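Run log // design_07
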């Protein structure tokens, strides 16, 4: 294990309607709605966070829902699939549940030692549920999904690259990942032995490049212990000649961003302070949270946001 990168931290995607977004991820998939805030760079847009009970790194999916945004296109130079981890024996439950809510999914498929189904959210974001025996995380439920079937967090992510070697070298030489599996044109890397952190690269020299829009990934964040390790890894990335931002305060973590050579936006985020910095664990996600530097504009910001609500009764 390395000392600067401890796996995946969060994944951020572009969505369309915020109510559809919360219905899909909390209602149908049963992930905890842990934070309702805004895009700090575009305060008229929500930033919605889902995860396990406290938003542990490796469980957090976040969305910028822009109502009316045109759909993007999945393709080369993008992260195209987010894989979510479910316990052995849970795939049948989930296939029934997705069908009940009209979500199309693939038939079960096999890859390495896992079985998975592929499907999309309402905006076309690529998702998988991966059944596996080695994930011991507790998972989360609002009570409507039996805890023995609930999502544990991510299993991993998939990037499509036209020149996988460049991204591979970045991961293995600078970001403390190890190549742990190869299957056809799929190369699997991981930085930690904990479950939930696989980074798969599909080598895809042909086909269209991806285009940002609704239903596409905005960025992929890796975790680092603290502000000190963040500066160390930032320096190492800069030494590769990649342009990396200064440290930015994202309220729940501190972040630096850079584009990997294949085109995917990477972020490196600190573990502290976490999602309980501005509201207690019990009430995470219940009220609109603003960073201190935006609090003075709260009334105006709230007027500009479409009201959303989580009504679990629809999803029993
Ligand atoms: Zn981020």
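design_07 sequence
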């Amino acid at each position: 294990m390395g000392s600067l990168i401890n796996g995946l931290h969060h994944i951020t995607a572009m969505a369309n309607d915020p109510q559809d977004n919360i219905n899909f991820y909390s209602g149908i998939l049963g992930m905890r709605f842990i934070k309702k805030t805004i895009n700090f760079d575009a305060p008229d847009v929500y930033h919605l966070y889902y995860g396990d009970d406290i938003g542990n790194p490796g469980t957090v999916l976040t969305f910028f829902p822009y109502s009316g945004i045109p759909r993007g296109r999945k393709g080369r130079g993008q992260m195209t699939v987010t894989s979510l981890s479910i316990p052995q024996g849970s795939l049948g439950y989930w296939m029934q549940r997705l069908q009940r809510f009209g979500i199309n999914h693939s038939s079960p498929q096999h890859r390495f030692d896992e079985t998975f189904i592929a499907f999309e959210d309402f905006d076309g974001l690529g998702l998988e549920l991966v059944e596996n025996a080695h994930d011991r995380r507790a998972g989360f439920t609002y009570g409507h999904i039996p805890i023995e079937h609930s999502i544990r967090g991510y299993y991993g992510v998939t990037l499509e690259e036209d020149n996988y070697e460049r991204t591979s070298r970045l991961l293995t030489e600078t970001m403390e990942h190890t190549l742990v599996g190869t299957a056809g044109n799929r190369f699997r890397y991981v930085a930690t032995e904990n479950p939930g952190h696989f980074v798969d690269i599909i080598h895809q020299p042909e086909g269209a490049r991806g285009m940002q829009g609704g239903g596409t990934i905005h960025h992929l964040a890796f975790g680092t212990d603290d502000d000190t390790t963040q500066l160390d890894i930032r320096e190492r990335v800069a030494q590769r000649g990649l342009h990396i931002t200064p440290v930015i305060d994202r309220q729940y973590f501190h972040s630096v961003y850079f584009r990997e050579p294949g085109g995917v936006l990477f972020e490196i985020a600190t573990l502290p302070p976490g999602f309980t910095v501005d509201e207690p664990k019990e009430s995470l996600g219940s009220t609109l949270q603003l960073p201190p530097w935006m609090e003075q504009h709260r009334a105006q910001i709230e007027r500009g946001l479409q009201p959303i609500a989580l009504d679990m009764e629809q999803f029993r």
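Residues 86 and 131 are 5 Å apart (CA to CA).
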